[in-house]
Amino acid sequence: RHQYLNSHGVEAETIVRRGDLARACLLVAEAHRCDLIIMGSYEMGSLLNLFLDDVVAKVLSETLKPVLLCR
């Protein structure tokens, strides 16, 4: 995936962290001076969707950076 993005002039990196998802996302975005936060979610069941929606809501409420949500 990164090869495709890099070949089109888009710098991309995958970072994996443990712990509170929203907090980790916010800390990594700040540390790497990201211009955009991209978050994905999948149709895996209502309980998981509620959890992921909570993470997205927390990130949206605590950042001034644009957030792209991919479903």
Please tell me what the overall shape is: globular
The end-to-end distance, rounded to whole angstroms, is: 18 Å
**Radius of gyration over alpha carbons?**
13 Å
Oligomer: single chain
Number of helices: 3
Low-confidence stretches: none
Mean pLDDT: 83
Summarize the structure.
The protein is 48% helix and 11% strand.
How would you portray this structure in words?
48% of the residues lie in helices and 11% in strands. With 71 residues, the chain is mainly α. Strand 1 (37-40), helix 3 and strand 2 (67-70) form a beta-alpha-beta unit. Helix 2 (21-31) runs parallel beside helix 3. The model has no long low-confidence stretch (mean pLDDT 83).
Per-chain topology:
Layout lengths: L1 H6 L13 H11 L5 E4 L5 H17 L4 E4 L1
Parallel strand pairs: 1-2
Characteristic terms for this protein:
48% helix, mainly alpha, 71 residues
